[in-house]
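Notebook p. 47: complex prediction with zinc ion.
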Amino acid sequence: MIRYDTVTCALDLDAAGKSAGWVELTHSDNDWDNSAIRSPLGVIRGGDGPVALVTGGNHGDEYEGQIIVRRLFEMLEPADVPGALILMPALNMPAVLAARRVSPLDSGNMNRSFPGAEGAGPTRALAGFVTTHLIARAGLVIDLHSGGTNSDFIDCGYLTLTGDAGMNRRNRALAETFGLPWTVVTPPGNTGGDLDSAAHAAGCAMFSCELGGAGQVSRVSLDAGWQGVLRLLASEAVIAADTARRLGADGAGKTRFADLGAGSRHVTAMRHALAEPLVALGQDVAMGQPVAILRDLHDLDLPAQELTAPVAGVVLVARCRPLVRPGDHLFTIGPELDAKTVAEMAG
Ligand SMILES: [Zn+2]
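Predicted complex, structure tokens below:
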């Protein structure tokens, strides 16, 4: 039995073969006293080769990753995996059960809670278990996100720059192998406490991505994510190439790069309003192009306000909810980056 703070796991993570169990979180409040919150965990181990950890449900209202990780457990057998695959489809199960981004137990955002800590609440306890017992066993980590209830994302991998040129080249190669239509480049330390930084600190190859969003399941995003996971696992020798092909993998498309760092801009509402979008996710927009119209909810006499693109680029993120408050970002627009610029940014 493994224990980390309030988290336990009876599954033998190092046993050969294919086995499933749970990560159990004990939490005492009005809803969960005398209960264990069980999050499924699977291990497929065929030998002593490379080990990968694949996770979904880091945020509870993101579904493509949860489906892909469960499907990997269904479709792979130990004979397909020369090393091991560790599969955790619902990282933050309390959030998954509530269909919310963060945990209802402590408002913990799992992807700001790494590397985790003891005595710091249930979300950090879960993160600590993942860091100490799952990431520590892996050489490759894949964390699958989507936009969540409030946002829709283009299907994109993250190339988070680290300040280490060698690691940047490695991460760029991972994103190109995964082969989503877009790869967004973000600055170092963009989201502290994420699973990515815990995996990098452990020396793992790490890839994370966004597959659609809006609290729904997109067929297109799901297929793109499935293909990417199979290609990356095959390229890192976690599964054989013919296994990946058997499960439907084909060649990667060429990913295009966009700046989600200093060159990108939000389009932000500064009044309470009903928002009418004038552009769609993935669309190319010119600087100054009208992208949304805001109308007052209560007063027909108040003139509508037109919001324009503060920068030329691609609509990378779109807000799903049309009712907006001051400070709500309707869109995030980032310029496309050519290969030479990406190479310069990566050092
Ligand atoms: Zn997420």
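Notes: The chain has two domains: 2-259, 265-345. The two ends are 45 Å apart (CA to CA).
Next step: compare against the earlier run before touching the bench.
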